[in-house]
Every structure is written in structure tokens, then in C-alpha cells.
């Protein structure tokens, strides 16, 4: 069975690794198409949220004031989601169109070559640096949306339970946990790929399964109490 999986994967790889296939254009087309479809569905839902009459099934459950507040909250979240979705789509298009991933990979390699000790250079270290650099950039770009969601949208409807101090402390804790768990797991992930060659996908699957089972055990005991 393993030989069959390997031969199938190798055959598929050789067929797809074709410079004549316009992968970038295809990915952009599918991404834009998916966004348009999701936006249409959100618009349909927004029209439902504009209704002023309580559905017959809920008339005995909630009053008009509660229903109006719920509808207003839903509309506010829908508008926020649309703006955030447009921004995310524009960002993803720019990343793909202007090859920002390869540029970031090259930048992390240059940084390590110029500033890191020799023992911290190599593919594994560069892979970790690339992953965390991308994660931090995404976090920074998403901060304005996260701040607005908690301290404007949620605050307006009385649902926000966070303070600015708690917001930033949770952010720092999240980044610290990402480093604490991400570095060893990511290093092991990349090391397995290096050590197992073309058969890496089976070993990565087993490793990922082990990590997931461990995370299910650790998360409620170690991570949840920190927040």
C-alpha cells in the first residue's frame, strides 16, 4: 500500500510540476471566485438581518426590543466581516501576485546569514524564522481589526469583557506560547522532512497525529488557565 501511495504521489507531482500551467492565475481566479460567492451569501444573510418582524417561531421566546438589538448586532458584524474580508482578499492577492512569500523567505535567509551565529543557520532555522516572521506580520496587520471588533463593535452592544491591558497581555501570551511550542514542533517537522526524503508524507502524518493527540491533552490543563 505504501508503494502505491508513493507511486501515485510521484506521478501526480510530475504531472502538476509543469511550467506551462498558469498556477498563479488559477489560484487568483479561484480565490476571487470564492470571495464573490461568500460575499453573495453574506449579502443574503444581511437582508434577513434587516427584517423588523419577529419570526412566528420566536414570538413567545423574545420581545421586540431584544429582537431589534439582535438584528442590529448581526448587521454590524456582517458589515465588519465584509470590510475585513475585502482587506484580507486584497492582501492575499498582493501576496500571490507580487511573490511576497519568496521575498520573505529570501529576507529571512539574508538576515540569518548576516546576523545569526553559524550554528543557527540552515534550512530548519530559516524555515522557523520564515514561519514566525509571516505569523508576526499577519498579527500586526490584523491588530486594527481585532481592536475595533472588541472595543468598538462589541463594546457598542455591551458584549465586550476585555480591557486594553488584558487585550495586549493575551496577545503577548499567545505569541510566547507560539514560540514555546512552535519552535520544537516546527523544528521536528522540518527535520522529519529532511531525514525521510520522498517518503516524508507518511512520517509527517504520524508526527502530526501524535502532536494533535498531545495538544488535546495539554490544552485544557496548561494553556487555558493562562488566559
TrEMBL record:
Keyword Transmembrane helix: yes
UniProt xrefs under InterPro entries: Peptidase_M48_N (IPR032456)
Keywords tagged on the record: Membrane, Transmembrane, Transmembrane helix
Stretches that traverse the bilayer: 128-151, 171-193, 200-222
UniProt key word Transmembrane: yes
Pfam families: Peptidase_M48_N (PF16491)
Occurrences of domain CAAX prenyl protease 1 N-terminal (ranges): 45-227
The protein's name: CAAX prenyl protease 1 N-terminal domain-containing protein
Species of the source: Hortaea werneckii
